[in-house]
Automatic annotation (TrEMBL):
Pfam families registered for this protein in UniProt: Epimerase
Keyword Oxidoreductase recorded: yes
Ranges where the NAD-dependent epimerase/dehydratase domain occurs: 4-246
Species for this entry: Arthrobacter cryoconiti
Name of the protein: NAD-dependent epimerase/dehydratase family protein
Oxidoreductase keyword on record: yes
Gene3D superfamilies: NAD(P)-binding Rossmann-like Domain (3.40.50.720)
Length: 341
């Protein structure tokens, strides 16, 4: 079995990756911004069913600082670079999002190259592929790139594009033979770990809490976090994965947010009594987008059903993601079980 470095070890996707790696017998080294987080991360993994925690160690390293990365990468076979800054709400300076994502990726790649790592698998996102193109009749594939200043592209989306492009440029010009694969999941839902709610799972939590007044006419392509984790692990060693961008999606059309609520109500019964059933008029969303930055991406895609290819993930990685409904249901069940709603 291999020694694998997983960056951002306290994160949602990283937690599932670490769990699966340990279950498969790998030795895992995880980075955290402070070693004070180690006991909390271990407790979360233990509660998730991890029993062989002795094969897991932690190192301190931050995306905005050079220190710690050489030690983190020393002696490992593969690096799964999952850590990425996520900012919600209004952002005063886009560079606060873009610089850590881009420069952090380059720090990890330099450390991996200098340590003689075979391959780096970098977590990008569908944000780097399928936003800002307008309402085109198109199945998005890995050949697509989000235009930096397309309508509805926010600072987070730009950070994903710029970080991934910087990684590919580095490997081409300074990589010294290191292999790179990028994984680009659509909206990630599924079983939570610990008490932190991440990414698209906020839709589930806010729905169950009754904090969602209604649903905009928006369609979301969804994938289960367990399948995203499996794709990262498969990408470490799959022969044809080197040098590839790989979307991770179910292959189903994007699902209406109103349908997410309907699934929660049907599958969770009385525990989903606060989930709304009404929609929010398009005009309300468009007016809100004039004043609130977080509504701009939503307003740009109202009524637009995106189609996303899952062919590479199936053919190259052998990953067949479970239906979106399973991710939605599992997310809701885990939040209820963890008293998070």
């Amino acid at each position: 079995m291999s020694i694998v470095l997983v960056t951002g070890g306290s994160g949602f996707i990283a937690g599932h990756i670490i769990q699966q790696l340990l279950e498969q017998g790998h030795t895992v080294r995880a980075t955290v911004r402070s070693l004070k987080k180690e006991s909390a991360v271990r407790a979360v993994l233990h509660d998730a069913g991890v029993t062989n925690g002795d094969a897991l160690t932690f190192v301190e390293a931050d995306l905005v600082d050079d220190s710690g990365w050489a030690e983190a990468a020393a002696g490992v076979d593969y690096v799964l670079h999952v850590a990425s800054p996520i900012h919600t709400g209004k952002i005063k300076d886009e560079n606060d999002v873009i610089a850590p994502a881009r420069d952090g990726a380059l720090r990890v790649l330099r450390a991996a190259r200098d340590a003689g790592v075979r391959r780096v698998v970098l977590t990008s996102a569908f944000h780097a592929v399928g936003f800002g193109h307008g309402r085109i009749d198109h199945e998005f594939t890995e050949a697509d790139w989000t235009p930096l200043h397309g309508k509805g592209v926010d600072a987070y989306g730009r950070s994903k594009v710029l970080a991934e492009r910087a990684a590919w440029d580095f490997v081409a010009s300074e990589g010294n033979g290191i292999e790179l694969t990028t994984i680009l999941p659509v909206a990630v839902m599924g079983p939570v770990m610990g008490r932190d709610i991440s990414g698209a799972n906020h839709i589930i939590q806010r729905s169950l809490n009754g904090q969602m007044p209604g649903y905009p006419n928006m369609y979301v392509p969804i994938v289960d976090v367990r399948d995203v984790a499996a794709a990262h692990i498969a990408a470490m060693t799959a022969n044809r994965a080197a040098g590839e961008r790989i979307l991770v999606a179910t292959g189903e059309p994007a699902i209406a947010m109103k349908e997410i609520g309907a699934i929660l109500k049907h599958d969770l019964g009385a525990k989903a009594s606060k989930v709304p059933t009404r929609g929010i008029p398009d005009l309300v969303v468009r007016v809100s987008a004039v004043f609130l930055d977080e509504f701009k991406p939503v307003a740009a895609d109202l009524g637009y059903i995106k189609r996303v290819s899952s062919q590479k993930a199936r053919d190259i990685l052998g990953v067949t993601p479970r239906p979106a409904r399973e991710a939605i249901r599992a997310a809701g069940q885990s939040m209820i079980a963890g008293d998070l709603v």
